[in-house]
Amino acid sequence: MLALLVLSPVCAEYLIGYDSIIGRPWELVSGLLFLAPLYGTVAVLIREVARRTGRGWPSILLLSAAFGLFQAGLIDQSLFNPHFISDPSWSQERLPTLVPAAGISVHHLMNFVVGHVIWSFAAPIVVIESCVPRLADRPWLGRVGITVLLVLYALAVVVFFHEHTRNFMASATQLGATAAVATALAAAAFALPRRPAAFSGRVPPPWLVGGGAVGVMTTHQLAPAGWSGSVLDVTVLSLGGCLLLFWSRRRDWDRRHALMVGGAALVVNTALSFVVEPLGGHTSLTAKYAVNATLMAAVIALLTWAYRRLLHTGARTTTATLPEQSVLAIGGDRES
Predict the structure, then answer these.
(1) In the predicted model, what is the mean pLDDT of the chain?
(2) CA end-to-end span of the chain, whole Å?
(3) Greater confidence, 56 or 128?
(4) What is the DSSP letter of 281?
(5) In a 10 Å sphere around its CB, with 0-12 CB exposed, 13-18 middle and 19+ buried, how is residue 162 labelled?
(6) Most exposed residue of 2, 88, 103, 303, measured as fewest CB within 10 angstroms of its CB?
(7) Which DSSP symbol is given to 250?
């Protein structure tokens, strides 16, 4: 649980290396004290809800989208704030796909919400569950643990909301519409049927699934800010998502495939971090590349260890091996 609490904000904010603090390691470490309650608690709670209710990855992704929209639209309001970052790149990315009536950039909407779904929540959950495959289908928290995380998240929301709305506040219509859509996404997550039975059929080998995921996520991250880039982004993500949904319901799909997809997300961002210029332009390149290299080494080590753990416990273990009753009975009130 603690590993997921830390990995979530690292994946969300540090791997891509866009912030000027990327060259200041101590600030990165201290920043986790604020970012873990905002990102990590949500990742743990999303996973906990899914495992306790016996739901699968479609529900996890919908809940991730709901919280991602909540974060970008209601908490820091980066989705609407035209001056959220005082850097020319903000307007250059926002304006080409700006929808004036809504005050939203389609490019930013895709980047923020998809970014939260993949890097803030889904990928960290996949990777950490792969590290503990025997506990992957079980709840990790009891009532006390859940309450503590909810309190930490509430405090983080108050702090970040106050910080980001001192000079800007979205309109009531924007806030209301965002809340309505986020609520609908969360409701849809619970409206989906519980984990369906797998059906027969072959799936590509894990390495090929991982390679495809690298291509999809790289396209998403590098898609240009204009309308053509947004269309390309939506098309590639939709195609990749449909293939994953199709393959993951087959019996030959196992945790190695899931790890390859989640690991691809981490690898893509750590690789791109070497060519990303931190905002502000006041970062030592030597320090930046040193941190980038350290994070890359850490990601490779983590993914290698996770893969070996899967092989050690049985590489063919599927991502939905326990029925709902067994999941709840085994881990219902367990702290981890």
Answers:
(1) 90
(2) 6
(3) 128
(4) S
(5) exposed
(6) 88
(7) B
What confidence category does residue 281 fall into, taking pLDDT thresholds of 50, 70 and 90? Answer: low
Q: Is 126 helix (H, G, I), strand (E, B) or coil?
A: helix
- Determine the 3-state secondary structure of 82 from DSSP: coil
The 10 Å Cβ neighbour count of residue 202 is 10
Task: Tell me if 73 sits within 8 A of 108, measured CB to CB.
Answer: no
pTM: 0.90
Q: Which helix (H) or strand (E) holds 170?
A: none
3-class secondary structure, 104: strand
Q: Which two tokens stand for residue 316?
A: 């063919």
- Residue written as token pair 């990790």: 140
Beta bridge partners of 98: 105
Question: 3-18, pLDDT tens digit by residue?
Answer: 999 999 999 999 999 8
For residue 151, give both structure tokens: 């309190």
Contact 171, 49 (CB under 8 A): no
DSSP letter string over 214-228? HHHHHHHHH--SSHH
Name the token pair of 164: 């980001």
pLDDT computed for residue 114 by the predictor: 96
What does the block give as tokens for 309?
Answer: 């753990």
Which phi and psi (to 5°) does residue 66 adopt? Answer: -65, -45
What is the identity of the amino acid at 311? L
Count of Cβ atoms closer than 10 Å to residue 198 Cβ: 15
Between 325 and 316, residue with greater pLDDT:
316
